[in-house]
Specification:
This protein is mainly alpha-helical and 501 residues long. 62% of the residues lie in helices and 4% in strands. The protein is built from 21 helices and 5 strands. A 5-stranded mixed β-sheet has the order 2-1-3-5-4, with helices on both faces.
Length: 501
């Protein structure tokens, strides 16, 4: 039994003592999983998106692999391979990914706990997990969220490396994972880390870990470059062509405009000529530069903590600039790594570090003002979370409608007699082909993997369908004499079908 206090002050309430040790980061991860299971999975468990079918087909033993273009990396395909080996169920796949992404969120931000404190780290995780793109991508077979978690963990381990020798091994591993998931993003992360390790003596011991992570994670990409594309230079050239010509020809202002216009959907803005959706919900994004600058100014007064904001902000800028400046289209998921790295500095700005806040004592005269400020910040943040859930509902419905269109097309083609082994070509051939269990190939465009003669030869020996987006769009020459079939409830798609005699 606890002894009574003798200092004249009342003992703390039991509730307060219970709240202090609460594992807030684990609570955030649990809420993140629940949001996915309750709000996202019911709408997306029946089908996969376009890019998802490309990644899944690389590991699914039941379907032919879709064409894997030069800019892609295979990390996410490796990640889902064990799940696909057990079952082709999309529901199982999404459920496992939702739970795994919540655990990965916990693990990635847990790295920051010794640097920021428990509550500030949990707030950083909440800031990132509360974005609609984060909530949507957790259960999707897409690399961007996993890349974001890898880079935020890598920067945390880098900051811990001078004081903890074991952190260097974790640093190399997380950089390697980032390279495997998105090779270009891994390179853009490694550049500021390596520059810091070279220029700042404190972090010089981390340089071998950065180099080792880049080498180990990039080895698969480099080997594939020589095996499939003729070398690293040729793969980079083909990647640029696939992306529409990467280079500094695009203005930064137009890149910001594209990112802003796609902020609340569509899921892919290419070409990005859509009107700005719900401008009021974009205020948080416009406030990011101001919050970032304030976070840097706040830590600049405490030089021993400056690196905790300066390095993640620098890495965030490095990861965001290619998508703002080097390509002429946009997607909200592209910026998830940048958002993840901005979360710790902004959380530090909002809440202060746990250790610092424990050491400060506020006078009674300041308590009402502090309470009012905290209440205002809390209400603004709740409004932000509510708006993100609203956007999540809309974008989840869009994703479900599109995957439903692919399944509808596949179902009609199956009725026409298009069954494995078979081939689907034309727009949307990858997702429709995957749903059918067919191979896919395009005669032109970013996924050009088939010649007219090859299409003609395949059609002579197996069921083949060529898709067009409307009756006014002519099919390629080998399919001109094939019978057209409207695909109802797909927005006007037409299938030209050839069945071997």
């Amino acid at each position: 039994m606890d002894a009574p206090r003798t200092d004249g002050m009342a003992a703390p309430l039991p509730l307060v003592g219970w709240l202090r040790p609460l594992p807030w980061l684990a609570v955030v991860a649990l809420l993140y999983a629940l949001v996915q299971l309750i709000l996202v999975l019911p709408h997306t468990r029946d089908g996969l998106g376009w890019d998802e079918t490309v990644y899944v087909s690389q590991s699914d033993p039941r379907t032919p692999a879709a064409y894997f273009s030069a800019p892609r990396s295979r990390g996410i395909s490796f990640l889902v391979a064990p799940i696909l080996a057990v079952s082709p169920s999309v529901t199982l796949l999404r459920t496992v990914l939702a739970l795994a992404s919540a655990m990965a969120l916990y693990g990635a931000f847990r790295v920051w706990t010794p640097l920021l404190g428990r509550r500030t780290t949990a707030l950083a995780a909440l800031l990132f997990a509360g974005l609609w793109a984060t909530m949507l991508n957790g259960s999707q077979v897409m690399p961007n969220l996993w890349e974001a978690l890898a880079v935020v963990a890598a920067v945390g381990w880098f900051l811990r490396a001078p004081a903890e020798p074991s952190a260097r091994w974790w640093l190399a591993g997380t950089i390697g994972l980032a390279m495997l998931l998105r090779f270009p993003d891994g390179c853009w992360l490694a550049l500021p880390l390596l520059a810091t390790a070279i220029c700042v003596r404190t972090y010089r011991t981390a340089a071998p870990a950065v180099i080792g992570g880049v080498a180990s994670g990039g080895a698969q990409w480099a080997m594939e470059a020589y095996m499939r594309f003729g070398g690293i230079g040729e793969r980079l050239h083909l990647s640029s062509a696939t992306e529409g010509g990467m280079g500094a020809a695009h203005s930064f202002a137009s890149g910001v405009a594209r990112a802003l216009h796609s902020l609340n959907g569509p899921l892919l803005c290419r070409p990005c000529d859509v009107p700005l959706h719900a401008p009021a919900l974009a205020l948080w994004w416009l406030a990011l530069p101001l919050l970032t600058a304030a976070a840097l100014a706040s830590t600049a007064r405490r030089r021993h903590r400056l690196a905790l904001s300066a390095l993640p902000v620098t890495c965030s800028a490095s990861l965001a600039l290619p998508y703002l400046f080097l390509i002429d289209y946009s997607a909200p998921r592209f910026f998830l790594p940048a958002y993840a790295l901005l979360a710790p500095p902004i959380a530090t700005l909002i809440a202060g570090t746990e250790r610092g806040s424990n050491q400060r004592t506020a006078s009674l005269a300041r308590l009402p003002r502090r309470s009012a400020t905290a209440t205002a910040i809390g209400l603004l943040f709740l409004a932000h979370l509510a708006s993100q859930v609203g956007v999540l509902t809309q974008t989840t419905a869009q994703a479900a409608a599109l995957s439903g269109r692919y399944q509808q097309a596949a179902g009609i083609l199956r009725q026409f007699g298009v069954r494995p082994p078979c081939l689907v070509s034309g727009p949307h051939s990858q997702p429709v082909g995957y749903d059918l269990g067919c191979a896919s190939g395009d005669l032109q465009g970013n996924n050009h993997s088939l010649t007219p003669n090859e299409l003609r030869q395949r059609a002579a020996r197996e069921p083949t369908a060529v898709l067009t987006t409307s009756i006014s769009t002519p099919p390629p020459a080998p399919a001109r004499n094939w019978l057209p079939h409207p695909l109802r409830n797909t927005g006007g798609w037409i299938a030209y079908v050839s069945l071997p005699r």
